[in-house]
Specification:
Blueprint (H helix, E strand, L loop, with lengths): L5 E4 L9 H4 L14 H18 L5 E5 L17 H18 L7 E7 L5 H14 L5 E8 L9 H14 L4 E8 L12
Parallel strand pairs: 1-2, 2-3, 3-4, 4-5
Helix pairs in contact: 2-3, 3-4
Length: about 190
């Protein structure tokens, strides 16, 4: 026992060997979403059941899906709005976990939102709040800041961004990645 809990990111990059049967229509097979959401949900639920009942791992706390699905590059589908498809994916996994008796063994976290301060991210997140709220246990996002001169060393900017989401979720928001960025023209020494 390591004394830590695990969050599994189920589904992220796609291997060439499975793109023909796994991916939904998308130009770039490495970032495609799954074609069959029901099968994806059952596979995620089967993994959780296997880890709990066969491997006896009781430290898998949460499962999430794809990294920063609101950012073009990790979760794309050409035939439907990504935010709608991601919401449907989460609800399929939620249903599959309930069906195999594992929903009480693992939380669903998400969406691992990228660039929380972007207006497009706020719109994407609002859609999830309205359509996926019953399936999500813990809302998550990545808070990167400091890429403009006005944000540099401005920790209240990052905190205000987080508070926006905390208020929307009733305090049920967690930042899973945070970074006070520097531009490519600066060095770490310039930031001190």
């Amino acid at each position: 026992d390591t004394g830590c809990n695990i969050e599994i990111n189920f589904g992220w990059k796609t291997a060439t060997r499975i793109k023909d049967w796994f991916n939904a229509p998308c130009e770039d097979y490495m970032v495609g979403a799954p074609q069959d959401l029901t099968a994806f949900g059952k596979a995620a639920a089967a993994l959780i059941k296997h880890l709990n009942e066969v491997k006896k791992y009781d430290f898998v706390e949460a499962i999430t899906f794809y990294n920063e699905p609101n950012l073009e590059g990790d979760f794309e589908i050409d035939t439907i709005d990504d935010r709608i498809y991601w919401s449907q994916l989460v609800c399929e996994v939620d249903s599959a976990l309930k069906a195999n008796g594992m929903r009480n063994k693992v939380e669903i976290w998400g969406p691992e939102l990228c660039n929380m301060d972007w207006d497009s991210s706020k719109d994407w997140f609002q859609y999830q709040l309205e359509n996926t709220h019953s399936c999500i246990n813990q809302w998550t996002g990545h808070n990167y800041y400091g890429f403009t001169e006005s944000q540099k060393n401005n920790y209240s900017y990052a905190f205000d961004t987080f508070l926006y989401y905390a208020e929307k979720t009733g305090g049920n928001m967690m930042v899973t990645e945070m970074y006070a960025g520097i531009s490519s023209n600066e060095t770490v020494r310039d930031w001190r």
